[in-house]
UniProtKB/TrEMBL annotation:
Regions crossing the membrane: 43-66, 96-113
Keyword Membrane set for record: yes
One Gene Ontology cellular component: chloroplast inner membrane
Organism: Malus baccata (Siberian crab apple)
Family the UniProt entry places it in: Belongs to the SLC13A/DASS transporter (TC 2.A.47) family. DIT1 subfamily.
Major localisation: plastid
Molecular-function GO terms, alphabetical: malate transmembrane transporter activity
Subcellular location: Plastid, Chloroplast inner membrane
Membrane topology: Multi-pass membrane protein
Annotated Pfam families: Na_sulph_symp
Keywords: Membrane, Plastid, Plastid inner membrane, Transmembrane, Transmembrane helix
Protein name per the record: Uncharacterized protein
Nucleus among keywords: no
Length: 114
């Protein structure tokens, strides 16, 4: 489960939503089979049963986190100017950064189409 301050808070919700996303989900299916509950199409049944609670948690998580850990800065009118200044300080994109972008695009392409 994700920590409260984890920026990827939705991973816990998505793991509960999909049958194969977390080991405990498959364990629950196996335990149900052992006591005689046979699920004809486990993935679809799991998705239908888990979708409402997962989507509610996905929508409620940012609100709860905002109340528990309110941001220190809520108004940033000079953010575009600050971002422009930081980008100028960083300078142009380097060769290594282009190589990293190319490697990432290749990895994602192979994952999607491979």
């Amino acid at each position: 489960m994700c920590q409260l301050r984890d920026p990827v808070y939705s991973s816990g919700n998505s793991s509960a939503l999909f049958l194969t996303a977390a080991a405990q989900n498959l364990l629950c299916l196996k335990l149900a089979e052992e006591i005689g509950v046979i699920v004809p199409n486990p993935w679809v049944s799991w998705f239908m049963a888990a979708s409402l609670p997962a989507f509610v948690c996905l929508l409620a998580s940012p609100l709860v986190l905002y109340k528990l850990f309110p941001p220190e800065t809520k108004d940033t009118p000079d953010a575009p100017a600050m971002a422009t200044k930081k980008l100028e300080n960083m300078g142009p994109v380097t060769k290594n950064e282009f190589i990293m972008v190319g490697t990432m695009l290749l990895a994602v392409s192979l994952w999607v189409f491979g």
